[in-house]
Design brief:
Number of strands: 0
Radius of gyration: 16 Å
Number of domains: 1
Oligomer: single chain
């Protein structure tokens, strides 16, 4: 099934907004697909596939800018990859899926509205805590079809483990790796069933991610547009709760 022009335009906008802050955009894609009544069986695979392309482009942009810190990434990603693979292999009741997805979309709103300025004093990384958080993020990433960046970013900022742009770089590669593990998990169970218009969605996502990466590299703030995005996520989350 293919959708109208508005659907693909929204995918473009979501990709541009998210990639400008180092995200793949899965929560946004899921919100749009929820609004357009895409079945849960197709939503997870579609969001993860889009994540692969958008987060890769976003990561390249921030990596080229010199903001990537491997020392921050590895404790979070070490356990998140196998846990994302495991989460993607599990099947869920559609009603439970909608509730959990709605909660995560509200978390995405929190991420979008998070204050842009953080403390200039960074803390040393707590390795055991990072390993635990990474495992939890990875599991829910695969289970729901997101990359986990919407939760990792506020964690890094609130715990003062990284600066804003370091957070964006680490989140982008974290999302890419977890999305790849999630896709692999779906393939092993025969559950990789994206929507019929996935190719046009990917094209829209790639175009949007290049636009967003350019905006991020030029230091053009997407703050005003994030309020519109937050509104979409809130609407979609409540729609999921009350379907």
């Amino acid at each position: 099934m293919e959708y109208d022009l508005i659907f693909y335009l929204l995918i473009f906008i979501i990709a541009a907004l998210y990639s400008s802050v180092g995200h793949g955009g899965a929560s946004g894609y899921l919100a749009i697909m929820a609004i357009f009544a895409v079945s849960p069986e197709n939503m997870r695979a579609s969001a993860l596939i889009l994540n692969l392309f958008v987060s890769a482009i976003s990561f390249f942009s921030f990596y080229r800018g010199g903001f990537f810190r491997f020392r921050i990434l590895w404790p979070f990603v070490l356990l998140s990859i196998p846990m994302s693979f495991l989460g993607a292999r599990l099947e869920m009741d559609p009603s439970v899926y909608r509730i959990i997805l709605g909660v995560f979309l509200l978390l995405a709103v929190f991420r979008m509205l998070l204050a842009a300025k953080g403390s200039s004093v960074l803390r040393p990384l707590n390795i055991p805590l990072a390993l635990l958080l990474g495992a939890l993020l990875g599991f829910f990433s695969g289970l729901i079809g997101i990359g986990g960046g919407i939760i990792l970013s506020p964690v890094l900022l609130l715990l003062r483990y990284a600066t804003i742009r370091e957070t964006a770089a680490v989140s982008a590669i974290f999302i890419l790796l977890n999305s790849a593990a999630g896709v692999a998990g779906l393939i092993t169970t025969g559950g990789l069933n994206p929507v019929g218009g996935i190719y046009l969605m990917v094209v829209s996502g790639i175009a949007g991610s290049f636009a967003g990466a350019w905006a991020g590299s030029m230091k053009i703030s997407p703050v005003k547009l994030t309020y519109l995005l937050a509104g979409v996520l809130i609407f979609a989350s409540f729609k999921l709760f009350y379907l």
